[in-house]
Design brief:
By secondary structure, this protein is α/β, with parallel strands linked by helices. The chain contains 16 helices and 13 strands. A hairpin with a 3-residue loop joins strand 2 and strand 3. Helix 3 crosses helix 4, helix 8 packs across helix 9 and helix 11 crosses helix 14. The longest helix is centred in the first third of the chain and has 45 residues. It is elongated. The protein starts with a helix and ends with a helix. The relative contact order is 0.16. The structure holds beta-D-glucopyranose.
Length: about 500
């Protein structure tokens, strides 16, 4: 080989080495960045851990807080609100009743016909309407005018052609799913808004009166026969069909639970007599807090940036309004720490852009190569061409968020049952093991449980983890479809027949 040839060969070798070194460096950098993405997820996973020991601590904390909230107003973050519901519908109710069910983003109007003497619900009709976003921060008058007009139009459609006594006053069950201090079965004052609502001039007012005034302004002759929380409506419907129903849980945009308490345990309302010896208590468990809850830096940041800081802590960890947002925050951190989402991840910086139904869809994607996850990332967040490895990481984040929420929901449910001695464990601990523990049915409603099968599975699995296989069989979570509204109409029927 001549000198020139040698020079060329050496040159080629040098270039090849340089390219190889650059490739190795690039690969090493990419591994490093991938490692950082994985570390973000692992850190999050660790922070969200809910081993059974921790769940049992949450169970106990829930029961303890319930006692404290029943002992005095302000004694606990759990408000434990009296509902004045001391009798649940039993099937003897008769006639036509309406309900207006105001939850979060939607309002439902419905009409039921009851046949009395155990004939149950003869028929019912439900319509769902979207609440315009701007109304959630408008004025009391605008808001109540909108919902009473929606109801009026529904009543007119329903009664068109039906032989009704003209102008006869109709009875309404009003489901108002926010914390209310009840003054009676049919009236109560709004304590505060939750779930992003901010119609300030309603706080402190009797919401039944606001609605009745709006109905009369709009020419609707209707009377609020029962004002109930959505959990209470759900309990009423659950109990209507199954007398072992002792509690109800809502797990949707917001979350809450109610249950039947003995009157003598309502310490803060000393001497309150009820017909049945018991009363339904609206726990407002969305505001529950305990040091045992697994809180991460993402939860802290979400709370800090929320309009209701330090409030609704449990709700911010487990309900539909927040799960997608928690996942979004973790994905955004991954995007900041690594390049696994490419250049186009800036959409992930927009708060609340990842809604929980989308998170659930990604979590439950069973298409080959997570095609659905890829489609959602591309169409909803303008993040095309995300690798399979990165898509798998996205699914893992959704799984962690949802699993923690479902397991904490289960712990809350068992805590509530423990307080009333219906968890089965209390029987074992006190030696009352003769006979089978009582069957306890918890009526449950709303999308997170009804439409999200992974969430449902994780909840049921955690109940078994906490109680053990045998005792868990006595705790039945039963969906009470449309319970919040139908139950309110049933309660309007129960209480109007008592007047
Ligand atoms: C409200 C509760 C309601 C729950 C479920 C919470 O934000 O404070 O009153 O029951 O959401 O809708």
């Amino acid at each position: 080989m001549g000198r020139v040839g040698l020079g060329v060969a050496v040159g080629c070798a040098v270039v090849t080495c340089a390219i190889a070194a650059a490739l190795v460096r690039r690969r090493a950098r990419s591994w490093l960045r991938w490692g950082r993405a994985v570390a973000v997820v692992e850190g999050f996973e660790e922070g969200c851990a809910t081993p059974v020991g921790r769940l049992r601590q949450v169970v106990d904390a829930m029961a303890v807080e319930m006692y404290a909230g029943l002992a005095s107003d302000g004694g606990s973050k759990l408000k434990m609100l009296l509902t004045f519901v001391d009798t649940l519908p039993d099937g003897d109710e008769d006639g036509i009743y309406y309900a207006l069910d105001l939850g979060a983003t939607t309002c439902r109007v419905l009409r039921i016909q009851l046949g009395g003497r155990g004939s149950k619900i003869i028929n019912h009709k439900v319509e769902q309407h979207q609440i315009p976003q701007e109304l959630t921060s408008s004025t009391s008058e605008e808001f109540f005018d909108f919902i009473s007009l929606t109801l009026k139009e529904f009543v007119e459609r329903e009664e068109n052609g039906i032989n009704q006594v003209p102008d006869e006053r109709k009875e309404l069950g009003f489901t108002f799913s926010f914390p209310v201090r009840q003054l009676s079965i049919s009236s109560g004052v709004l304590i505060k808004w939750t779930k992003g609502f901010a119609i300030e001039d309603v706080v402190g007012k009797d919401v039944s009166q606001c609605l009745e005034e709006a109905m009369s302004r709009n020419g609707l002759n209707m009377h609020v026969g029962a004002l109930v929380n959505d959990t209470v409506g759900t309990l009423a419907l659950g109990h209507y069909y199954d007398k072992d129903t002792v509690a109800a849980v809502i797990i949707g945009t917001g979350t809450n639970a109610c249950y039947v308490e003995r009157s003598d345990a309502l310490i803060k309302s000393q001497g309150l007599l009820t017909n049945s010896g018991g009363m339904v208590v609206n726990m407002e468990w969305g505001n529950f807090w305990s040091a045992h809850l697994p809180k991460t830096s993402y939860d802290i940041a979400l709370d800090d940036e929320s309009p209701n800081r330090n409030e609704q802590g449990f709700e911010k960890m487990i309900s539909g309004m927040y799960l997608g947002e928690i996942a979004r925050r973790v994905l955004h951190r991954i995007a900041e720490e690594s390049d696994i989402f490419g250049e186009s991840a800036y959409h992930l910086s927009v708060p609340f852009i990842l809604r929980t139904p989308l998170m659930a869809a990604m979590h439950e994607d069973d298409s080959p190569h997570l095609r659905e996850v890829g489609r959602i990332l591309e169409e909803q967040f303008q993040m095309p061409g995300i690798s399979l490895k990165a898509r798998m990481l996205v699914v893992r984040v959704c799984d962690v968020v949802s699993r923690r929420a479902a397991r904490l929901t289960a712990a809350g449910i068992i805590g509530m049952l423990k307080k009333i001695g219906r968890d089965g464990i209390s029987d074992v601990a006190s030696g009352r093991t003769k006979g089978k523990p009582k069957r306890s049915v918890v009526a449950i409603e709303r999308g997170l449980y009804t439409n999200y099968s992974m969430f449902r599975e994780y909840t049921n699995e955690a109940i078994t983890d906490i109680l053990g296989e045998e005792l868990a069989q006595n705790v039945v979570l039963r969906v009470a479809e449309d319970g919040s509204g139908i139950g309110a109409a049933l309660l309007a029927a129960t209480y109007s027949s008592k007047r």
